[in-house]
Amino acid sequence: MKSKTISRRDFLKNIGMASAGVMLAASPWLSAFSEIVHTKGDKCRLAIIGPGSRGRFLMSFLVKNPKVDIVALCDIYQPSIDEALTLAPQAKVYNDYRKLLEDRSIDGVVIAVPLNKHCQIALDAFDAGKHVFCEKAIGYTMDECFRMYRKHIDTRQIFFTGQQRLFDPRYIKVMEMIHAGTFGDINAVHTFWNRNGDWRRPVPSPELERQINWRLYKESSKGLMTELACHQLQVGTWALQRLPNKVMGQGAITFWKDGREVYDNISCIYIFDDGVKMTFDSVISNKFYGLEEQILGNLGTVEPEKGKYYFETIPPAPGFLQMINEWENSLFESIPFAGTSWAPESANENKGEYILGERPKSDGTSLLLAAYVEAVITGKQPPHIAEEGYYATMLCLLGHEALEQGRIISFPDEYKLNYLNHQAKSL
Questions:
Q1: For the chain, is the Cβ count within 10 Å smaller at the N or the C terminus?
Q2: Has residue 24 got a pLDDT over 90?
Q3: With contact defined as beta carbons under 8 Å apart, do 135 and 161 qualify?
Q4: Domains of the chain
């Protein structure tokens, strides 16, 4: 796929917003593109720390951006380096990220290593004067996340996280509609992400098991909460523009009993002050329902992953069908166990409308990375993007604690930011 210069006009037209003002009100981090024309010809020199499968996926977008030079790669696993060199053959290779950070010509880093390594690498990168893109979840503990965010504030270096839905046109348009009251009062958010697979990768030698399958072990991973929930919980708080104050949940290993330490199915309920609830469920032994965020208002429902919305009131059935329905209802209304046998429920008949007039084509990753590049070149941190990534991870970690402890957990005040009226002290 050829690289294409992003046009703000085309972008606005694509998401159906009337003006830049409306767009930035819904997603202020899109201001990263405000100088995209003026930065034409500029270069951003990036290093990839952790070019494994996810790191190379991010590289596949970056190498198509004419403003990017991938100048360095760092990994302790040589096969990952070898594959990454096919994408960036001129890159210098390191096996110690600290040596890489000594190169003053590097503008920014992309961190895509196991979760328990994120914090120290990011802190060291900030201290070395590098801008940071860190894959989600950003930290292994809540304290790590807080330290990373504080370091970003103190050093004033750019800080992006791997929350691509922030740049997905479907989600941007949906949030503009939600916040305008199109779907009424949002009373619940249901999210789920189901797969059918063991999450295990082949290991060429036994001593590499925990290095390659790090997601399966507690010392390096917090499982489904940090790997999957991180995306969807951020969507819920983006829609509601506030934080839940409590969470409860339950997790277990019920199917993949292969020596893993992290749960293969989980369920969490996040509770807001007014009683509104947000749920996250994940099962990795059945993929039939896949993944979705269901945002429920009294006037309508949104399923942004599917790219559709549904209003509660739908047009009446055609005359003949309506007559048949009424006839069957009258026929069976006196029989307590029968009821209507085939009259369609509105949920089944309501086909909904596409948010952007068509099926979704991308998930926002390319725009997320393009925005990071623009921010690195201009040296301007887009509003709110660091905070959205911070809270996405914090809510995952809070949910994980609830699963582990088997009790209701409250959001600690000391880790709250003065952001989106989250009722916290200012940093």
A1: N
A2: no
A3: yes
A4: 8-166+364-382 (3.40.50.720), 169-314+348-361+390-415 (3.30.360.10)
